Structures are given as structure tokens and as C-alpha cells.
Fold these 3 entries.
Entry 1:
Amino acid sequence: MIEAKIRKVGNSAVMTLSTEMLALLDAKEGDTLYAVRTDDGGLKLMTENPELQAALAAAEIVMDENRDLLQALA
């Protein structure tokens, strides 16, 4: 378990990510993190946009289902 404190900076609340946390996320300064609420009420931090990942997965299914048609159109 890694602990992080929330502190006030101006009108915002900020959580500082330790080097260890960044390494676990495979993230670096300047990257964007996405917080997703889990079914059990927790938060999951992700370095990839989950909405984009879902859209790409759906597109992959459509392309697989229509591969012959798409090749004929290409």
C-alpha cells in the first residue's frame, strides 16, 4: 500500500505522486491520468483513456465482423 496526502494549492486540492507510484502506473511528469470509479466504490487510476479504449475495442469487433467487406472497399 502506498500512501499519498492531499494538500491545498491555490483553489485546488493536489495529490503528489511519489516516484514509486509513477513507476507502478508506468507514468511520468506531464502524462494524463484517468480516474475510474470501480464497482466497489474505489478509484482506479489509469494512464490510458478508458472511453477511448472501449471505443477502439468496439471498432475492432466491427472490423473483424466485416473484414471481407472492408478489404473489398480498400
Note: The domain at 4-70 is CATH 2.10.260 (Pemi-like Protein 1; Chain: D).
Entry 2:
Amino acid sequence: MGAASRKEPFRYVMNQPIDCWLELPAGSTGPGAGKQTEGVLIDLSRSGCKVRSSLNLRFTSKDTRLIIHFKLNENMLRFTGSVRWGWMYGLGEYQYGVRLDLTAEEEEILTSELDLWTMSSGEEDS
């Protein structure tokens, strides 16, 4: 199958960023472990997302775990992922690329939520 026959978008870009909450798993080291920090979801795909927040992960390796909480439609979603890259975005703001580590059930939920969100908002970028 070539790219021209792809029926689903690679990435959903939010024209208006969606509020989200970022959480370091309770077993993590560093400030903020187990607590939620406000952020915004910039884009989202079935395999990952881009988020922006005041949370400074002091990103040094590709094994930083992160839990992302957000609502596309009616349901609050909660997915765990691995931070793949990060940098300072502005004064006190950081942007991160996160690879989502989804179970088959979570992938179904996300696909369904994205389909519903796309139908109601029309926001996608192939």
C-alpha cells in the first residue's frame, strides 16, 4: 500500500491546543513524581503526541516515562508513553515528543476517540 492509498491520517494537529495533564509515574525520581502538571496537547497520532508544559523533565535519556491525561470528547483518556525528545520552548515552557505505549484495548479506544473527535471538529492533517 502506497502513501496515496492511506485512508487514515498520520497525525491529528490541534488548531486549538487541547488542555492536558502530564504526570510522572509515582516510582519516578525527581520533582513532581506522582503529581499532575497542566499542559497542552499540540498534536496526536495513534503512536504518539507532542505536548507543551511548564514541567521540566531535565530530559537526558530516552527512557523517561510520562502519563498523559486529556479529553478529546466526553471521556477522560489516560495513556502512558516514553519521552523521545524534549527542549525548552520558551521561558519556563518545554515541549516534548512522546511515543505512546498502548495496549490493543487502548489503541482501540484512542482510534474511536480520534474518529469521533475528527467528525465533530474536522481538525486533521494527513
Note: Strands lie at 12-23, 36-44, 48-53, 65-71, 76-90, 93-100.
Entry 3:
Amino acid sequence: MGTATSPSFDTETLRRGIEGQTPETLLSLYADDAELRVVNRNTQPSHPKVLHGRNEIADMLLDVYSRDMTHKLEGCVIQGDRAAYSESCEYADGVRVLSESMITLRDGKISRQILIEAWDE
């Protein structure tokens, strides 16, 4: 009798989506009912921005990846049904953004994500 395994998270798709600035590729990594919480200078930890489902997440990804900036996946670690990754970004005017994500996986897809961003001020 074999053992069942869960699909693994596709880090190469994550890298291609982030560095290729293709929101459609990134969106393919999310479960239909995914939840994304964003904490940054505008949405503090006590009142994070919460997006529910692929449609709301798609709107955010389309906005972010349409901007005149570069994105780089700095690293990704996966352990069981959890993963974490770092992304560095730079706008054309030199402003830098660093984001850290902690994600929960279900069947190889992102089901929950907490994204924390820090910007140059």
C-alpha cells in the first residue's frame, strides 16, 4: 500500500510570477477561497487589509505588478503545510519596498497569507 502525498508548493512558479511581474502566474498559486492579510504603514496590525478569494487577490496583484518597479524573490522556505518568502522591490524613482509573507498551504495552493511590507520613507 502506498502513502498519499499532498501536492507541493511550486516555488519556481512563485519566482516566475514575482520576477516576471505576471499577476496571472501568481494568482494560479492561490486556492479559490484564499485569504490575504496585508499589514503595512497604511493598514496597521490592529486593522489589516483583508482580501477574500481569488477575485479580490487578483485585483491587488494586478495593481501591484502594473507599477513601474522591479520585483525579486529573495528566498522561500517550505516546511510541511507552511511556507515563508521574502520579496524586494524597487520603484523607478529608487524607493524600495521589502515584503515578508507567511503562508498556509492546502493541496499545494495558498489558502492563507499574511503579508508585511516596509517602505522607504
Note: Residues 42 and 48 are 9 Å apart (CA to CA).
